[in-house]
Amino acid sequence: MLFGIATFGNGLAFDRIYIILLIFTGIVCRKDINVVSVIIILVLRMMWDLLAWNLLIDENLVKVTLYLTALYVSYYLRYDWLAKIVATVVIVASASELYWYSINYSAPEIYWYIWIMISNLLIRYLVFCRVSFVDKYFPNAGESVNLDWVIYKLYAVLTVLQAAMVFEYLSRHLIGFNDVLFVYYSYSYVVHIIGTIIIWAIFTENYKRLILKLLKA
């Protein structure tokens, strides 16, 4: 928790600590498939977000592909109540993009937040199905851990935050409420706080598993 607080305003340092902690937890709990599988999901999230950061550019074809993908993912994961929020945001954002294109307006780059919402839905799906995935390859080994609940809930908060950010952008660029910047200025702090809580949850899970291992020794 102290690491998260100490790195406020320094995203690079925070990311490095996060990666180191993931690797450390994976090594310490390498024989615990449940913790390892959660770590794998979080690492996958980092990898596909990094890939998306390099591939997503402000081009119409890219945005059309992204929005269609977002609608498909929202439909496929419609059992998740967040999917309805994401679908609503995507539809409104798509209509806004079409309007801006028709009037030759320099549109804000809201497509990144759309991607983050898709990514969050996928993470929640993987966490939700994690135990069954583990049981498929390691019969009767799958069990829910505290990290599942923490990540599942926090990624819901992150998704709502992305939706709020998109709607705030729309309020400025469609309605003209240029002074509406509350989410914009608080966004990085909220994301950092949530990341800190995830680090705390990983450390706590790591500590509990390590203590149990030592007690059994």
Seen as an oligomer or otherwise, the chain set is single chain
Count of helical regions? 8
**Structural class of the secondary structure composition?**
mainly alpha
Q: State the share of residues found in helices, binned by percent.
A: over 70%
Number of strands: 0
Q: Which sequence of SSEs, written as H and E, runs from N to C?
A: HHHHHHHH
Mean pLDDT: 86
Based on Cα principal axes, name the global outline: elongated
Segments where pLDDT lies below 50 for 5+ residues? none
Count of the separate structural domains: 1
Indicate the radius of gyration in whole angstroms: 19 Å
Main sheet overview? none
Strand content bin? under 5%
- How far do the termini sit from each other? 28 Å
Briefly summarize what is shown.
The protein has helices at residues 2-6, 11-28, 33-55, 60-76, 81-102, 111-137, 146-175, 182-216. The chain has 217 residues and is mostly helical.
Description of the structure:
This protein has 217 residues and is mostly helical. It has one domain. Helices cover 82% and strands 0% of the residues. It has eight helices and no strands. The chain has helices at residues 2-6, 11-28, 33-55, 60-76, 81-102, 111-137, 146-175, 182-216. Helix 4 runs antiparallel to helix 5 and helix 7 packs antiparallel against helix 8. The chain is elongated.
Quickly list its features.
217 residues; elongated
Topology:
Elements: H1 2-6, H2 11-28, H3 33-55, H4 60-76, H5 81-102, H6 111-137, H7 146-175, H8 182-216
